[in-house]
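ENCODED BACKBONE
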Amino acid sequence: MKGEPLLPSSIMAGIAAASVEFWRENPRGGWATALLLLLLLSWHILSSLARRRRRDRRGSASIAALTVAPPPKSDFRIAQIISDDDLRELIDDLKGKFSGNERWENVIDKRNNLMSYNAKCMRPKDGPPKYLSVTIFENCSTKLLRDFYMDNEYRKEWDKMVVEHDQLQVDAISGTEIGRTLKKFPLLTPREYILAWRVWEGPDGVFYCLIKGCDHNLHPPQKKYVRVGFFRSGWRIRKVPGRDACEIKMVHQEDAGMNVEMAKLAFAKGIWSYVCKMDNALRRYPLRRHHIRSIQLPLH
């Protein structure tokens, strides 16, 4: 804040002008009045300094109070965002029990010595395209793959689309977590995701995860980003019988504000390169495995 002058300029100019004028009219006795004016000026200066010190102390106290005050507690309830009904719906989707008469179209089917990837797509009557994919990683355990998928800090290193990720809230009772992710795409405004997720552990080392879009009062929408409104994704990780390999099967839907046909074409052209990059990051992951904070609940 810009400080006020010690005395308003009009008062200073008035005192100086009065002193000069008095000496002109009374050259012999002006010293007494000059002394009085000097005392008056000193009193104004000292009073102004005292007021400034009091104001500065009040300002410092206010700043100190802001500095040490704890952040406001969020009353945002997350326990009901993802329920067991969502898990049952996810399991049905992964089994292929979709509602309606969906017509699926094969998008890609590729493999190499370390992995294979298959994806198909369908266009529901309402909502964005839905993708169903199966990826099999050789020489990989289910727990390693689960940790890899849930490690958002490591994802920022290998996934160049992810530029920011922040954990916003955790509910230890329900196992639901909320985070914010910012992604950048070529020639497009960055996309902002506010996502809730929940992990379940089933028998025989099977893991399920459901991720869905939500809102959070710590991050209202911003004009410089496109907030992704609809997002629903889920996966199941399980061991491939009779092999040292594991499989992740995923169903995914999101509306990122892109042209549907262009998004589908970009997916078909770029997904294999992305999956290969992901596989390379997975192979390096055991050397720099982070502690995973995600909470997982047992299946009932």
